[in-house]
Specification:
single chain, about 220 residues, Rossmann fold, six-stranded mixed sheet, His_Pase_superF_clade-1, His_PPase_superfam, PGM_Phosphatase, phosphatase activity
Length: about 220
Amino acid sequence: MPATTIHFIRHGQVFNPDHILYERLPGFHLSERGRGMAHATGRFLAAAPGFRDIAAVYSSPLDRTRETTDILLEEVNPARGKRGLDPLNPHYDERLIEAGNEFRGKRIGRGAGALWYPSNLKLVLDLSKPSWGESYRQIARRVSDFVYEKVEEYPDAQILAVSHESPIWTFRHLLETGHPEHNMLRRGTALASVTSITLDCGSRKVLGITYADPAAGV
C-alpha cells in the first residue's frame, strides 16, 4: 500500500525586537537563535533513519522560510552525499505562505494592533476569521491542494514542506477534527518543529500524524 509522508516544518525564530506583526512583509529574517533552531532540526532530519529518503523540498517564498530551508539543507545534503544521493534543491510554493492578516505592520498588542482596539473587535469575534483577512477554510483549502497534489506526484515518498504555524496547524486540525476552525491559542506547532502527516496514495486516508520538536532546547 503506497503512502506519502509530508513533513511540515515551521520556520525558526524571527528577529523582531519591535514586536511587529510581520505576516507576509519582506525584510523579516531569522534571528541567531532562529538559525540555531533550523540547524538543530536539520541535524535531526539528517540523522533520523525515517527521513533518509526525502524526494523533494518545498518552502513558502517568505524570507524566514527560505532561510530555514537553506539551513535545513546545509545539514541534510552532506548526509545524503555520504549515501551517494544527489543534493536536494528547494522549490517555492505560494500555497505554503503565511495567512493573510489585517494587522500586518502593526505592533502586537499596542494601539491599533491591540485586539481590544474598537475597530478590531469585529475581527476577533468572528471565529472563522479571528484576526486576519484569510479564513481558516481558505488556508486549509490551499494547503490541502498542495498536499494532495504532492501525494499524486510523489507516490510512496517523503516530502519536506517548510511553512508557518497557521497553515500547518489549520491543515492538521482539519484532518483530525473534520473542520479547520480552531482556537489559535491552543496550537501545537513550535518553532522549527516537524509535523509529519502520512497519507495513503490511493484513498488519501490519513495513516498517521506525528510531531517532533528537535529545537526545543535551543
